[in-house]
Amino acid sequence: MVKLTINDEVVSLDADPNMPLLYAIRDIAQLTGTKFGCGLGLCGACTVHLDGQPIRSCVTTLAAAQGKTITTIEGLENDGELHPVQAAWIDHKVPQCGYCQSGQMMSAAALIAKNPSPSDEQIETAMQGNICRCGTYPRIRKAIKQAAKMSVASTPVSAQSATTSSIITELGNKREVSS
Ligand code: FES
Ligand code: FES
Asked: What is the C-alpha separation between 36 and 154, in angstroms, rounded?
């Protein structure tokens, strides 16, 4: 039994401790927003936070998360209020196919938590392990800059506006298709 916290919920998983954390998140915890891409730690699609640090869950064992706190894309919002990264992603219509985007957003959220005013170079360095086959990199960079500003200003972001809700639905449908 491996005990850990996922998105503020303490869970005990009866699973092989050597299984990739990604499998536990997707197949046991049923949180399918985190994606399987390469399975080799090379693409970033599986990025989640472990005690606040971005990690590749495909090459991290479940055992390594014992007693730790995991945050997935589903846990990024706070009581219905979007994380600034999520709001900026919507504003800039970042996703194309969407497959890489939860990993992109988790890396971006970790970056601005550590560095509230990242330069282009710092964004490039922090995001270089997250691959997007659709080439959404320019929009990702703009969205990170906006999210960083929003974070600093602590601007409340409501998930309830009609525009935002419709885009969230659209993104959710894409996730559904690609999960
Ligand atoms: S699926 Fe984990 S880095 Fe590609
Ligand atoms: S949006 Fe398609 S792979 Fe990134």
From this structure: 32
| Amino acid 178: pLDDT | 39
Residue 151 pLDDT = 87
**89 & 117 share domain:** yes
Give the pTM: 0.86
Q: Which atom of ligand 2 is nearest to the CA of 100?
A: 4
Contact residues for 68 (Cβ-Cβ < 8 A; gap 6+) = 4, 5, 50, 51
Of 75, 109, 124, which marks where a domain is finished?
A: 75
Please give the number of the atom of ligand 2 that sits closest to the Cα of 135.
4
The residue whose CB lies within 8 Å of the most ligand 1 atoms, and thus the one to mutate among 21, 32, 40, 99, is 40
For 93, the domain range is 84-178
**pLDDT for position 154:** 57
**173 and 89 in one domain?**
yes
Q: Which ligand is nearest to the CA of 129?
A: 1
Which of 68, 76, 87 has its CA nearest to residue 2?
A: 68
Please identify every stretch of the chain with a pLDDT value under 70, giving residue numbers as ranges. Answer: 154-179
